[in-house]
Automatic annotation (TrEMBL):
Domain UvrD-like helicase ATP-binding: 201-619
The protein's name: Helicase
Any one GO BP annotation for this protein: recombinational repair
Gene Ontology cellular component annotations, sorted alphabetically: cytosol
Keywords: ATP-binding, Helicase, Hydrolase, Nucleotide-binding
InterPro entries cross-referenced by the UniProt entry: DNA_helicase_UvrD/REP, P-loop_NTPase, UvrD-like_ATP-bd, UvrD-like_helicase_C
Organism: Sphaerisporangium album
Lineage: Bacteria, Bacillati, Actinomycetota, Actinomycetes, Streptosporangiales
Coiled coil: none
TM ranges: none
MF-aspect GO terms: 3'-5' DNA helicase activity; ATP binding; DNA binding; hydrolase activity
Amino acid sequence: MNTNSNAGPEFHITINNNEAGTTRQTQLAREQRYVAGLYERLDLLRARTRKQLDGVLAQGGGGTHQNRSERDSFAGMYSERLARLWAVENGLCFGRLDLTGEKPLYIGRLGLSDDEQTRLLIDWRAPVAQPFYRATPAEPMGVTRRRHLQTRGRRVIGVDDDLFDLDRLSDDDRATLNGEAALLASLGEKRTGRMRDIVATIQAEQDRVIRSDLNGVLVVQGGPGTGKTVVALHRAAYLLYTHRERLARRGVLIVGPNLTFLRYIEQVLPSLGETDVLLSTVGELYPGVTATAREPEDVAAVKGGARMAQVIARAVQDRQRMPRRPIDIDLGRYTLRLDQRVCETARGRALRSRRPHNQARAVFVRQVLGALAKQAAKALGRGMLDESDLADLREELRTEPAVKSALNRLWPYLTPQQLLLGLYGSRERMEYAGLGAAERDLLFRAPRPGRDQWTEADVPLLDEAAELLGDIDPLVLRAAATQAEEELAAARRAEEAQRDSELTYAREVLELTGMSDILDAERFAARHRDDEIHLTTAERAAADRTWAYGHIIVDEAQELSAMAWRMLMRHSPNRSMTIVGDIAQTGSAAGATSWKQVLDPYAAGRWRVETLSVNYRTPVELMAVAADVLTLIGPSLRAPESVRETGTRPWSRRIADLGELGPIVAGEVVEGGRLVVIVPAGRAAELGEAVTSAVPGAVAAQGADALEAPVAVLTVAEAKGLEFDAVIVAEPGEILAESGRGAGDLYVALTRATQRLGVVHTGPLPEILSRCEPVAVS
Ligand SMILES: Nc1ncnc2c1ncn2[C@@H]1O[C@H](COP(=O)(O)OP(=O)(O)OP(=O)(O)O)[C@@H](O)[C@H]1O
């Protein structure tokens, strides 16, 4: 079949005659006996591991630190093993390979041996299992037969064979030939709202991607439905199996476009027995910040542009700006003068130290205090002080509130949050940082106290700022936290007394100055310090902004901005990455237009492309409509080839007003199936209401609800990467016109369905969709 790129002649034979029945039963019974034995072994291993875990836990929490630490790591290891043994219950064994002159190999979700070390089951990721996915008649790799076992629970309910050596067919064999069935059966099934693993039906071109080398950057380019996401997840499982030690230490990060998408894929790796992987959006990659606020596309596009790296650097410099006039510091007994020359010299020293802003501050402060101490000595008439007296004087000055305040103005401690809020809140600062007038208008915002002020596009900027600012000395943090708590407590007392809103004010002050983040950071650290030993690699990585991952997988990678790439690259110093996407589907204004443009700056000569060419999701009839739209994106682009036909043409229906949309959607709902209405972003609320008010159970929101409801209303950005049994695209003309990348958006919308597609429109149907069959209005 065409899914194996070097498949050569057709090699699947289907025999469906009645005489085959009995021999088929014999084969099933034989396989059933084998599979039952595997489950018996699995049960035994589970019981043994449970006993080992109980043994460790029974030792309690006493002993030396080292004893406890060893026990913890054994307990962690046994729990992980147990979780893995439980995860493989469904579909434990799904394949058998018959090789010339050898005993058959059974392929499954993990490797099993008996007590004599005889192999009973081969992990699908092991090198010997590779022919299960790659063998073709042209290149049989020693395989005479590949058998797919279908199981329900622990029962074998069917077998499908691909025979590569037809001369060796026995009568029994002839009875069970039914190639492609496993794949096609799997593709035709109703969608559940969660992605499933495809371990039993991985195709040859996909297997090449899954087993590609760990090193360097692998780009997986492919049209919609070619399995990029599912393949990337299997690659994660493969890499963890093959390079377990290296990756267990440094972890694997999978980045997806939004939380609904992460929900959609979250069960795949656990079903493959892998749980210690961090799934995240870009917006969640900065510990302690939740990026939930929304902002217009053009604002996000400015924030995502590569130029923002310089803007942030200038914004930091701006906070090291020297005074235009000398600063007089009144200490009561005498007044000290801090002139520009002293400040300039101190700044020069601090910058030459090449430390980040917050650490360079120490150099700046030391210089300034030195100069002030000398002045003070003179003012006190003690011109000839020795070094130790001067040191005392410097320490005295350090704690003087007037000196502290002057230093804080000249070279303040800054959190990334403070830097960014200060920048967005001041047109003058933005101008100094190099932003043009139009950009300043877009980015300007009055500071909004509250936790929802960060957007996804802010996160890479916070991370960039954190790099340039560096950490704040923990002692300073602690002092700041104490001070903030005191202020809060004072405000609380004031509130009790006066019943006014001072507490709210104090909280707002804390938010605005970023102190609340400091407090949170402190508490977070304290909470985790004691139980760090129990954290998995993924958990430790998630809490550490500077974590260097062993491997990073980026899905829907075309959507990432230049600033997001900078952040991800910092997490991947070894540049071991898998980048999965489709340039034709780019929707975000800050997204990519070519892989070269994205990757050359970071991994020139170290990235390679694999292309997936077969569409497993969208049937031929639907893909024909989508392919027309693809020509709008690029005349030379070719849509992937679909493997299935359904015989059902996509339809289009013109309506007079939106009131008709709900009943049309209701009429398309199929019992047990899942339908999505994809709407223009600018009309999401209105069209969401039109559908949810007319269709019981319909939801118009992202998240788990959207995956589980029989009908969901989503924008293109929200539906990206997901799939549904049926899709209705509402107002396609508006989707096309909504942004500069409207054609890409419409292409994404049209390729989400596994079975049926319809288009509903109030205005004229865009010419490009004329392949849809118009439905007459009754
Ligand atoms: N070898 C396979 N066996 C069974 N199902 C498969 C196989 N390959 C892909 N699929 C199924 O095809 C569908 C599309 O896969 P996936 O979502 O990974 O595609 P994609 O390339 O990421 O698509 P898009 O770019 O549109 O998001 C999924 O339901 C997936 O399970």
